[in-house]
Amino acid sequence: MKLVKVAAAVVNQTPLDWQGNCDRILAAIEEANLNEASILCLPELCITGYGCEDAFLSADVQRTALAMLHMIAPRTRDMFVTLGLPMSYRGVLYNVVAVLADGEIVGFVPKQNLAGDGIHYEPRWFKPWPEGLRAEVELEGRTYPFGDLVFRIDDALIGLEICEDAWVADRPGSRQARIGVDIILNPSASHFAFGKHEIRQRFVLEGSRAFHTSYVYANLLGNEAGRAIYDGDAMIASGGRMLAIGSRLSFHAYLVTTAVIDLDLTRMYRARSDAFRPDYQGSLQPVVRVPFNLPEIEPEPVHFVRAAWETGSDTKKEEFTRAVALGLYDYLRKSHSRGYVVSLSGGADSAATALLCSLSLRMAAKELGFGALKESLQFIPAAKEAESIDALVTATLDCVYQATCNSGETTLQAAQQIAAAIHANFHHFQIDRLVELYTELGAQALGRPLSWATDDIALQNIQARTRSPSVWMLANLRGSLLLSTSNRSEAAVGYATMDGDTSGGLCPIAGIDKAFLRQWLNWMEITGPAGFGPTPELNAINVQAPTAELRPQESKQTDEDDLMPYELLDAIERAAIRDKQSPLETYRQMMALFPQYDEQQLAVWIERFFKLWSRNQWKRERYAPSFHLDDENLDPKTWCRFPILSGGFERELAEMWRAMRGEEEG
Question: Start and end of every CN hydrolase domain (predicted)?
Answer without folding.
Answer: 4-263
